[in-house]
Structure formats: C-alpha cells, structure tokens
C-alpha cells in the first residue's frame, strides 16, 4: 500500500476557469498516511468524488500534484496507478459468475491461476459470499451485486490504496452495519490504505481513524471523530457533525464577555480575536435547561429515544438543547451554557481561547 500526498490540487470542470467558484476543488492539500483508514465526509456537491477520481486517475487535476510514496503519478493512467475503486452503484459483469467477477481483476493483471483461486476464495469468505461463488451475477439483487463490487475492490491486496465512493448507498440498512464493520476489520487485519467517501456522518465516524471534512471544494478539518465533535475548526463542521448540530449564535465580543442581544455571557477565557462581531458555537449537549440563566421560549420538544431535543427561542434565535429522556422542561425555562462547551468563531473559523 502507499502513502498518498495530495499537493495543492485545484480542479475545474470548466474550460476557462477564472473565479474561485469555477473550481470544484479550490486548494486541496493533504497527506494520506500509508495504512490509514480515512473518511472523506461532506455534503453533496462539495467535491468528494472529484478528489477521489483525481487520486485514482479517472480525472486529471487542473493544478497540483499527486505523489504515491513520494513518486509523482499526476500524469499516470488509472492502470499505472494500481488502485482499487468501488463506486456508488455496482460495476460487475452480469454474465459472469460471482467467482469470475472477483477473479477478473487478478487475471487481468496476469496473476497465476493458483493465486487467483486462493485470493478469490479468501475474499469471498471475508464478505460471506462463498456460497454464491458459482451463481451468475445477473440473477442477484442490487445490494448483492454491490457486495460483489466490494469484493472486486478488496481482492487485490497489491494495490496502492482502496477507494470507496459512497459504496453502501444501495445496501439495505441492516446490511450496511455489517459491511461497515467488516471493512473496518479488514483494515485492522491487513493495514490497507483506505479512503471512504460518504455524506453520512455515522458512516464516516464508525469507519475511519481520521475523518477529512470537506465543504465547498475545500478541506475544512481533519481529525479523529472526537476532535471533530469537541473542537470543530469551522462552524460548518460543528453544524454538520452531531445531531442536532452545534448552535451558532452571533454575538458581540468584549474581552471575556460575549453579548447576545441584551444577555451577557461570561466566557471561560479571553478569545484571541478582535472585539466586535463573532460567533458563539455551543453544542446542544452543553446547553443546560433549568431554572437559572437566560429566559427562553420553548418551541418544540422531540423525544428521540435516549434523550430529548428541545428547540427554544433565545433573544430571537432558535437554539437546540439536549436533555435526558426523563427530564422535564421547567415551567419558566431558562438556559445556561456549560463553559466547557463554549467555542468562539470569527468569520466561521475557530478562535483559540487565551487564559
Ligand atoms: P460530491 O461527490 O461531494 O457530491 P462532486 O465531486 O461530484 O461532489 O462535485 C463537486 C462539484 O463539481 C459540484 O458542484 C458538481 O456539480 C461539479 N461536477 C461534478 N462532476 C462534474 C462534471 N462531470 N462536469 C461538470 N461539473 C461537475
Ligand atoms: Mg459524489
């Protein structure tokens, strides 16, 4: 497997790109370590597939370089890059058996037939497809076909990386859980370099050691699931990860105090930002609903199983709070913010808190 360096890549689908918004990838720079399990997470249209296709060679970037183990591969073809890629929809040969579908990428690379047999059987076992080996692919359901696509991606252990582009979209929800944990186990066992594209935070957080969050053609944060949750670098990350997402409230900063309308909020430190307009970011888990603090008007209480989500109006803004399943909303509800969960953002980017 390989370390993959994405060096200052920009990409536009237009013939004469001029402004920043003409670029699907604005300036992407990241090193994928050899043997890492990465998720590329972001909303639809943020550039995930574009980046994945640039790594595999299906697309050539407008600017920048791609290195595999330090070697420049920017101008090499897909074949020469030796990458396995699994797409959103099954890419298999309907007329072949399941076995031959998996054998194909190996035979194509002139692997000895004895090794082909060993690898195919191993892979079929890994994803519980051994009993289908002799079946023709044609008669299978869409999610069974997608499992074969996954098998075709996993069968070649000599590749530089295995790339997955929203591979579980057509798989039914229960099977999704099973396959995701199998992919994770495969990663642990074989140390593959894996890049897994998804717009689903649960999928990203359960699969990856490192999550790369993309927004509008850029990487906005790279971190462990815990880092993304606790210290979002950008308000988008706070909002996109977590359910419900982080509350973002416009405030006026004055030293260690944030003014939210007429409310004074004492901060746990002095943010390293100019006095003036900034944003306060607080996850709903850090909003305390009780009898002390700032008065709010409750608009909605949603019981989501293990806890309740309360939507309330604070100084003309909607905020969300999470309370325990058995907690009741007080008659004259007020909120306070737990200092441990207070973040400050200037122009959407996180500002560090000084002493
Ligand atoms: P994602 O996979 O995150 O949904 P994509 O990489 O597919 O995002 O798309 C990023 C941006 O590039 C979007 O604005 C999309 O409309 C545009 N785009 C993607 N593919 C093409 C294409 N073949 N031609 C023109 N624009 C494209
Ligand atoms: Mg995509």
Automatic annotation (TrEMBL):
Pfam families: ABC_tran, OB_MalK. Keywords: ATP-binding, Cell membrane, Membrane, Nucleotide-binding, Transport. The keyword Phosphoprotein does not apply. Transmembrane segments: none annotated. InterPro entries: AAA+_ATPase (IPR003593), ABC_transporter-like_ATP-bd (IPR003439), ABC_transpr_FbpC (IPR015853), ABC_transpr_MalK/UgpC-like (IPR047641), Mo/tungstate-bd_C_term_dom (IPR008995), NA-bd_OB-fold (IPR012340), OB_MalK-like (IPR040582), P-loop_NTPase (IPR027417). It is a peripheral membrane protein. It is found in: Cell inner membrane. Residues 4-241 form the ABC transporter domain. It comes from the Bacteria. One of its GO terms (cellular component) is ATP-binding cassette (ABC) transporter complex, substrate-binding subunit-containing. Belongs to the ABC transporter superfamily. This is ABC transporter ATP-binding protein. The lineage of its organism: Bacteria, Pseudomonadati, Pseudomonadota, Alphaproteobacteria, Hyphomicrobiales.
């Amino acid at each position: 497997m390989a370390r993959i360096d994405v060096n200052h890549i920009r990409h536009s689908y237009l013939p004469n790109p001029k402004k920043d918004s003409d670029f699907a990838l604005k300036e992407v720079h990241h090193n994928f370590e050899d043997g890492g399990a990465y998720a590329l997470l972001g909303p639809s249209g943020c550039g995930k597939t574009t980046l994945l296709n640039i790594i595999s060679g299906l697309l050539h970037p407008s600017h920048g370089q791609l290195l595999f183990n330090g070697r420049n591969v920017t101008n090499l073809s897909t074949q020469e890059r030796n990458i396995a890629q699994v797409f959103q929809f099954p890419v298999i040969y309907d007329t072949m058996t399941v076995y031959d579908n998996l054998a194909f990428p190996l035979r194509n690379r002139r692997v000895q037939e004895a090794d082909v047999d060993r690898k195919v059987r191993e892979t079929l076992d890994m994803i519980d497809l051994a009993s289908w080996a002799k079946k023709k692919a044609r008669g299978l359901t869409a999610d069974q076909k997608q499992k074969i696509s996954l098998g075709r991606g996993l069968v070649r252990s000599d590749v530089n990386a295995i790339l997955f582009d929203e591979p579980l979209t057509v798989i039914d929800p229960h099977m999704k859980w099973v396959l995701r944990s199998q992919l994770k186990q495969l990663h642990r066992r074989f140390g593959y370099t894996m890049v897994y594209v998804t717009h689903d935070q649960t999928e990203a957080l359960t699969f990856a050691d490192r999550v790369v969050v993309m927004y509008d053609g850029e990487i906005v944060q790279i971190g462990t699931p815990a880092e993304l949750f606790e210290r979002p670098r950008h308000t988008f990350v706070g909002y996109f990860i977590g359910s419900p997402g982080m509350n973002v409230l416009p405030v006026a900063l004055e030293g260690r105090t944030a003014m939210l309308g007429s409310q004074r909020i004492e901060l746990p430190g002095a943010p390293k930002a100019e006095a003036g307009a900034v944003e306060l970011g607080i996850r709903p888990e850090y909003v305390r609903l009780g009898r002390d603090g700032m008065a709010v008007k409750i608009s909605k209480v949603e019981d989501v199983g293990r806890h309740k989500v309360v939507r309330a109006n604070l100084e003309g803004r909607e905020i969300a709070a999470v309370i325990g399943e058995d907690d009741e909303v007080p008659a004259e509800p007020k909120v306070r913010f737990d200092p441990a969960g207070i973040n400050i953002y200037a122009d959407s980017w996180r500002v560090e808190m000084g002493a």
